[in-house]
Amino acid sequence: MSTTTQAGDIAVRSILIMADGERSDFDALIHPEARNREDVVGPADGRVRGPAAFYATAQWLRGAFEGLSYEIHHVVADGNLVAVNSTMKGRHVAPFVTYAVDGSVDTVFPPTGKTFAATQSHWFRIEDGMVVDHWANRDDLGQAEQLGWVPPTPAYLFRMARAKSRAKRAVRV
Question: Which Pfam families match (predicted)?
Answer without folding.
Answer: SnoaL
